[in-house]
Every structure is written in structure tokens, then in C-alpha cells.
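Aim 2, interim progress. The first record below pairs a target sequence with its C-alpha cells.
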Amino acid sequence: MLEKAEGIVLRTFSYGETNSILRLFTREAGKISVMARGAKKPKSRLAAVSQPFVYASFLYYKSTGMKTLNQGDTIDSFRIIRSDIVKTAYASYLLELLDKLTEEQEKNPYLFELLLQLLQRMNEDDDPEILVRIFEMKMTAQAGIKPELEHCTNCGSTKGTFSFSVKEAGFLCHRCIFLDEHRLDIHPKTVELLRTFFHLDISRFGSISLKQRTKDELRRVMEAYYDEYSGLYLKSKRFLEQMEKWE
């Protein structure tokens, strides 16, 4: 039976000399894998939609085994991302993080829209580093590791000066910082941004410009938190870290 879905190519795998297996994140069916027969042939009609980042409409045969791709029509190839090594690195991280934190055929239209809108904004002129921090914060809920962002994790206070505690999984107010000597002391703006990023409706915010100090603090918090609680090892993340050192 033929099924139709809009999807974004997360990864591709070679299968034999001429075939590819595409891992797609779709609006209608969640994450699925499809066989693209002959996609590696130079004149294949499936070659254009068998590349990472491509957003397309896919028509595939649904079966109990491996699904087979019948047709693909590109909606957006995100050409600017693909031609920029920095944007490619950040976009690859988005896709790999989503891939690791989602199950096969787990429908999540909200997550699909989030990923699509972030890629669209990255393909324009938004800062890819900020977009990644927004995605990381939102994905803590998908991973089941959302930190406490609304009040102090110890006393419940919403007033005062806050630090971020990886150990306590959220904010500590200035009265409770004794609980974690390794807390991350961050600027009040960074505190507010962490809250904002989690609740932010991507479709409603304009371009965000941040000082490098603020971006560095956001990165420190998210890196330390994911390293402690996610259990993930991402190749794209290691490449990003190397690239940031080069810069």
C-alpha cells in the first residue's frame, strides 16, 4: 500500500552498490526508514531526495518489513546550509540529536515543525549557535531530563540571584548555592534565556542577537547538563567542539 508523508532526511546509509536507506523524520508517521533503490545511480530520480537535510514529499510502499521509496519531490534542499561548513555542522548536530532522542514511528508533529522551522531559520540568516541552544533546551523534555527552570530547586523561591546546578538539575537561588560548589554562576540574562528558550514559540520570535559571553554561558550550561544526564555520544557534537576550538 502506498503512503505519503512530508519528511526531512536525517541520515543516509549505503545498501549495496546502488541503493540507499534513508532515515526520515516525517510529519505524518514520525521517524521511519525507507529503501531508495538505485538512488546512488547518477541519473536516478531518487538521487535528489536521498541527501541529508532535504525536506521533501515522499511516496513509499508500506510493508511489514523495510518500506520502499517510490517517489520523492523536493520542497527545500536548504542549499545555503549545505554550502556553509559552519551551518552544516550545526544542522548535522540538530538532526543527530533528534535521531538519538526519538523512537521509530513515534508521531510528533510538534517536533517535526520545530526542526523544520529551525532549519529554515538557519538557512536564512539566524545565528546557528543560538538555534542549537533553543533546540537543546526544548529537547530536554523529549529526553525526559527537563531541568527546573521556574524556581530554586531547593527552596522554591522565584526571587533573587540564580546559578545553574547540574547536580540539582536546575536553578539554585543565592541562598541555596551552598548545595553545589560546582554550580555554574551565570548572568541573569542567561538565566532568563534558558527559561525563554524552553517555552519559546519559534514561529513568533524575531532574530536574536547575543553577545559572545552570553552564548558561551548558554553552551557551558547545556553541554554540562547533557553530558551528565543524556548518556549520548554524538559524532556531530565532537566535530562542533573541534570547530569551535579552531575558531
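The second target in this work package is listed in the same format:
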Amino acid sequence: MISQTFDRLVDQAWPAFERVDRDGWTLRAAGGVTRRANSVLPLGTRADLEDAVEEAEEFYAGRGQPCVFSVGGGATPGLDGLLEARGYRLADPTLVMTASLAEAVPERSGKGAGGGDAGPEVRIAAAPGREWTDVWWSVDGRYGSGRGTATRILTGVPAAYASLGEEAVGRGVPQGEWFGIYCMATVPHARRRGHAERLLGALLSHGREQGAEQAYLVVTEANTGARALYERLGFTVAGRYHYRVRG
């Protein structure tokens, strides 16, 4: 089932370091840093749906965290409606977008979006240096003192870390035939210069070199600017998911 494929790819590319498997559901925790790593991945069918939800609630209550479910196309049938009835609010509707690496935009390392000098070259490393993490955390650091935990999550699997100096970064995760794009971030003063397009092009080229055939990324429905960029570069919507948050 292709919907479960994306659920599993995203889970594998952003691995929580505490994982408990319960009859097809995976209860994930990572100190409360990012919903993705601190939510239930509820795949397959469960005859004991009410009991399963209550068990998940106990798991997160024991860690002092709200109970959160990631509800994608492969989620247990009937779960979303049950959670809504139990008072769980819907959060962060998200699109999964894909593109063929045979057709995706190539790296553009010459002129910038405005026709001038593109600035520093895209660099790709096997680990995120301090400069890479500084840029990413300055843009996406929504978790206060959780920077160390977030870095532990994103380095939990082999990945490529692309950067344009101190202005923009991105992360690519090789996953067999798939190549996942994550952590695309540009500091505010450097936006609208084509940095995201150059970074994405470099990462996609790297994915092809690793033998991947398809690329995917996730973007919130509300992020219309990023969605427009990805569509322009050949990505189309292939799946969706959202979170259900207790309380």
C-alpha cells in the first residue's frame, strides 16, 4: 500500500530514539521535540481500538507529554473519527509530494534568482556541522532548549547535509529507491534569491548518484510558498497526513 510506504519512509527518516511497537502501532518519543518523533504511528487494523488509544494515552502521560497521533493514508480504519470524538484536535495538515529523479530539476550553481552572482557553492557533507545546525535551528528551532535532541533525531540515520554558507541548508535521506528531502531552511535575510532551488537541485543530484529513482518531501498545506516552489520543480501531491493532538 503506497500510503503506508510514505508513512514508513517518513518515520524511518526522522527516527525517534524511544520506540515501542504494539500490534502494528509504533509509540514514539524523543523528549517532546517535534511532533513527528513524539507521536503514535498507527498502521494496520486493531480490533481493540478504544483500548489501544487508551494504552497510547497512558504511554505519553507517563512521560509528561500530550498524546499525539500521526494520521496518514495507512492509519487504522476508524481511528481518525474516534480521536475526533474523544476531543483530539486536528493539527498540521501535511502533503507528501513526489518527483521522479530522472525528471527532477538539476542543480543550478550559476546565477541566482535575480540574475546575479549565486554566491557560495552548495556543499554536501555526511554530517551536520555547527554552521549547518545553526542555520537550521535559527529557522526551525521551535523547541527552545531541544536543539541537542533535535540534532540526535536528524542524525539517527545516514543522510546528506547540504548548505549554502550561513544562509540556507537542507537534508537528504537515501532510502533505497526513495530519497527523502528534509530540513529545507533559509534565513530570513537571504530569501527570494533562489537558494532553496539550488539546494534542492544539489540534493536531488546527490540522490540520483546514490541510486535512488524517486524523491519525496513533506510540506504543510499552509506553506503555500514552499508548495509553489516544489510544484514548479516537478513535485506533485502523492499523499497526506495530519496530527491529532489530545486536549
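The first strand starts at residue 18 and ends at 22. This observation will shape the mutagenesis plan for the next reporting period.
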